Each structure stands twice: as C-alpha cells, then as structure tokens.
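Tokens for chain A. Residues wanted.
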C-alpha cells in the first residue's frame, strides 16, 4: 500500500522553475514564471479583452463581433498550442505547452471564455428587459383600449 502511494507521489511532476510538486491547478499556476514578457503581454491582452467586453455592453453589433472573435480565438487554441510547443524556445524560458493543452486552456482559453460568458449574460439580461418592457406596453395598451370601450 505504501509502495503504491510512493509510486503515485513520484509520478506527480515537479516544476523545474520553483521545485513545487504540481498537485493542483493552483500549484501549476504558481509554478509559472509570470515575469516573462510574452506572459505579461497575454495578461495585458486579457485585460484589454475584458475592457472591450465591458465597454461594448451598450453596442450590440460590436459585442457580436467581439463574441465571434473570442470564440474563434478559443477554437484556435489547439493549433496555437501546437505551434507554441514547437517554437517555445524563441519566446519562452520554459516549455509550458503540453500535449493535453492544460497551460493554454488555463492561461488563454478560460479568460476568453469568461468574457464570452459575460457577453451572454448581458444578452440574456437585455432580452429579459426588452420582454418586460414589451409586456408592460401591451398591458398599458390593453388598459387604454378597455377604458375607451367603457367610455363609448
């Protein structure tokens, strides 16, 4: 039993940068060297995407374009991961891009998907607001019509 447990523990990867045993998403993210310029650029990219998501809340067509763009970027994450895995030495100090795509999913896709979820929530809210306004107008029109019929 202890032998099997020791085998399981030894099979968990140890990060080369911080010497942490990677057992969860949090330890994985803590093992990333966030001071690398391309990672700082990616963080700035995600902040700009969030800013655009918030700013375009009132502009339906712009938000549709942003939604489609972000969904396309998430769709292309697999190809981006393959490209980055082959060329990581040209822009990074460490090989973060594994065959399962854990890093690209956590650092690239999930923030984009959160932005798209925000957009969908805004759309649903706007739809419910429009439906409520429409029903209110219908009830007011019906009340006016009934009032006219009583006076005639």
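Reply:
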């Amino acid at each position: 039993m202890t032998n099997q447990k020791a085998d399981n523990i030894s099979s968990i990867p140890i990060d080369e940068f911080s010497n942490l045993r990677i057992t969860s998403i949090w330890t994985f993210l803590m093992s990333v060297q966030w001071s690398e310029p391309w990672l700082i650029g990616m963080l700035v990219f995600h902040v700009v995407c969030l800013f655009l998501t918030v700013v375009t809340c009132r502009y339906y067509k712009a938000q549709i374009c942003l939604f489609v763009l972000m969904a396309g970027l998430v769709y292309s994450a697999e190809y981006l991961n393959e490209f980055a895995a082959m060329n990581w030495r040209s822009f990074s100090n460490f090989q973060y891009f594994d065959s399962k795509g854990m890093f690209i999913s956590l650092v690239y896709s999930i923030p984009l998907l959160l932005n798209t979820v925000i957009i969908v929530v805004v759309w649903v809210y706007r739809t419910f607001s429009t439906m409520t306004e429409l029903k209110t107008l219908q009830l007011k029109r019906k009340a006016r019509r009934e009032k006219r019929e009583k006076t005639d």
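Residues 63 and 118 are 11 Å apart (CA to CA). Residues 5-14 have pLDDT under 50 and may be disordered.
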